[in-house]
Amino acid sequence: MQPVEIDDHTAEYWTRQIRIGTFIAVGVTLLGSIRVAVDWPPQARWWVLPLVVVAVLQGVMLRLPWRRYVRSARTRRWLILWWIAELPATWLFAAADREGPMAYLPCVAVLLVTSAALYGPWVVVGIGVASAAGFLVLLPLRTDVSPFSAVVFTGIMASVAAVCAINARSRRWLDDRRRASERRIELLLEASSDAVFAIDVHNTVRYASSSVRSILGLSPGELSGPVLNDIIHPDDIPGARAWLHALFAAPAGHTTRTEVRMRAADGTWVYLDVIGTNRVDDPDLRSAVISLRDIGTRRALEDQLTRQAFTDSLTGLPNRALFRDRLEQAVARRRGTEVAVLLIDLDDFKLVNDDLGHGLGDELLTAIADRLRREMRPGDTLARLGGDEFAILVEDVDEPSAVALAERLLRAGRERVRLASREVSCSLSIGIAGGNRRADQLLRDADLAMYAAKRAGRNGYAVFDPSMSRTVLEEAQQRVDMERGLAAEQFVVLYQPVVDMRTQRLTGVEALVRWEHPEQGLLSPYQFIANAEANGLIVPLGRWVLRQACEQLASWRRETPAAADLRMNVNLSARQFGYEGLVGDVAAAIADAGIPAGALTLEITESMLMEDITAAIETLGALRRLGVRLAIDDFGTGYSSLNYLKRLPVDIIKIDRTFVAQVDTDADDVALVDAVVGLGQALRLQTVAEGIETDGQWEMLRRIGCDQGQGYLFGRPGDPASVSELLARQTAPAPA
């Protein structure tokens, strides 16, 4: 029994065979009419007209839409009556014609061959038996046929019928094999995460795999024909057409890729990675093979990381990178007008963080950002450059207007801010720089003016003046002090615990440098690291910190068994990372301390890696060959694509504290951290969360699956003795 539905290939085959059979029937009928007109008795030649009418009717049947008709199983079954009807018609003609037996044999042979092309062996056998019976009945009517000839002709008919039946059976077997093969391919494609299209040069979809349902929610039948314009996003149609045109114009076998948005069954737009291969020259295909993969999740993560790269996660303002880009564009397009930069810093913000905690400090920054935004014109750009530093870009403005804006900002900043149950007052220091200078000069000059405002007593503004370059002398003095400090070992290393997120057991420490200045007291890294980076002293300072940290780890391992698996994390600065002797310094520090290379983890920020990704990969590879572990610090605050991340030979990604601060209250931060942790698991990287301060943050990060964490919840940076105490508590027996 034929299947209820057949594919396009089978329908085309049936249509072709029916039209071939019909064409033969028309030809045979016309030949018969000629035979009647020429050789039959005059009184019987009127049969010419019926025969011609039959030939015309059969010719009309050539034009019927058989491709549609044969898709019906009932139509295919009833078509056998056509062949059956041809038998008596052929027999009657043979009985009336004097050469009838000779005409009968080839006609029934044609019937057997054409029926074998469509139907099974039993149908062919049935037609063969009926044909042979008709021939045997026909023989007594003709006396000129010898018994031997009758036997020979009957044997030939039986042989033709047998061969046709065998061919029909073989065709059925081949069709079954083809369908099974196609079914296997369909099942494989259906299980694939990719959908496969075949698109011809007219941009018509000739084939769509069933796996398209899992991507777009559409059936393959809904994607047949010229439907591309209906499902591709209008903004992507020109690019998609150009891409297809280039693909078809490329050499055979050429492969290229693009990205496009397509409409799903629910009306949403799905981002797809599209890979196309030109197979137009293949006679069996005559199309381009298109593979589609859903990259919506990846694009969402990349878009989120891109927003984080150019947007401050706390305030929603542009960050330093975006501000710098807009400033450069403003400077490039100015025509006879001035561009001004206002650099704003909150006075004594560190005291707010220390007294009230980082949570309330973030609330203060958000409140100040809202106030600054209210004082600006719609076309101005307000950005948070980092920490408590903001910047404003103002175009088409003169110095008095910039000063007036600064005064408004100062008044807004002095308004008291309510944080939790208390009110806090703060002030701003603002530096102003304008004129027809380059973008980097404007930023530098505004920075100098801002520090001038701070030196003048804070809570005020200053307009840049060339005399402010005296600060360069102050930085030079700090360089001298740092050189003396290195020689006199005024620097100290503190260690902050890194713990297992499930057990809160100590697994490692991060080395953090402080400067015990003889006059200014204990200085945090924010007060000298930037200057050390600028003047190059960061290299010897970083080398000293590295050796101190390795020696301290070796000391802990000698003193207590609990430190046997303890790891040491050491930060590398940008200049230190680019230093040619870095690998040698690391190797020497490990060897001199006598610790395993795998016990040392070097932390590098994303921004450092992206400055020169090729050189970064080379340096990381050299460090990895030493055996040390490598971590990307402040992950998510820079802009490293997933393509680069999978190429970097790193072991750990450290999630920046800006994403951790509200992970227990902000669903967006939860989603982002979950995505980063999932990314780490997919790339077989450990994840470490920084800045954990509350149990709620710890619990959420633990549920998400973050491997390790550090922050004030587990311990502040302390001296080596404080770490020894933690190790001792871990090994002490539990009270009975």
UniProtKB/TrEMBL annotation:
CDD domains: EAL, GGDEF, PAS. InterPro entries: Biofilm_reg_signaling, EAL_dom, EAL_sf, GGDEF_dom, Nucleotide_cyclase, PAS, PAS-assoc_C, PAS-like_dom_sf. The chain crosses the membrane at residues 20-38, 44-66, 78-96, 124-141, 147-168. It comes from the Bacteria. Residues 475-731 form the EAL domain. Keywords: Membrane, Transmembrane, Transmembrane helix. Residues 181-236 form the PAS domain. PROSITE patterns: EAL, GGDEF, PAC, PAS. Residues 337-466 form the GGDEF domain. SMART domains: EAL, GGDEF, PAS. Residues 256-307 form the PAC domain. NCBIfam families: GGDEF, sensory_box. This is PAS domain S-box-containing protein/diguanylate cyclase (GGDEF)-like protein.
